[in-house]
């Protein structure tokens, strides 16, 4: 009985020592490794070459590792990669994640783009589901490196194929003949220009002379403009002032004439209404008197002065001769 009790006691002590030793190792690991944070990254590209335990680097500095890789249950187009990084890693707003692969086939998760003074990426308190669909903060992604090249390879091949077809059409026999004709025409044009070299040089020289003459003409126009300004200041402006004075004097004379006409208007009205009819009557009477005088003169001429007081004498009658 005592032997059995000793065995149980020894077993219990051993178990306790093992548990204490395990706790000690866990504590040592925490002390050495420090606390860590978890983040999710959703890639819409192939994550071939990335595996559980792959390195997570921040600006090239190893800062954590990949702990889980799985298709996202809400949208199978995305691959959810969960990572753990050290607590002192500056995962701030503006930080992005890319997959960097080498030609050996191994890939790592590269974090970069932290902005000084920006708040850390965290789950908001008001709506955590939208920013943290699986309970941890999400780091946005950006294409880069060999992964981006491989994801865009189909489009690149399609564009290369289209470019090749267009080059084939461009270099067809018909287009080659056209290009040959264009080159031949270009050669003839170059030869013609070379033959016309002296004439072109003479034309350029004449153009220079014309430009020089144009400059001289512009200078003379400037001098003429200065002379015109002087003439305006010295001659035209005083004459204009005298003309303004003459116009003012003429206006004053017109005002005086208007006043005189206004004063003479009553006399003119009386002359037109009274004097003119009387003058007409006088002319009529003078005409009648002139007619009477003319009649008297004719009578005197014909019968003498006696014809004015008696009837005219009858002519003497003489009988026929026997």
Give an overview of the whole structure:
InterPro entries: Mce/MlaD. Keywords: Membrane, Transmembrane, Transmembrane helix. Residues 301-322 are annotated as: Disordered. It comes from Sphingomonas oligophenolica. This protein has a domain at 34-151. The chain has 322 residues and is of the alpha+beta class. The chain is 59% helix and 13% strand. A six-stranded mixed β-sheet has the order 1-4-3-2-6-5. It has helices at 2-33, 128-131, 145-151, 153-170, 173-195, 197-303, and strands at residues 36-43, 55-58, 61-71, 79-86, 96-101, 107-112. It starts with a helix and ends in a 19-residue tail after the last helix.
Give a quick precis of the structure.
This protein is an alpha+beta fold. The protein contains 6 helices and 6 strands.
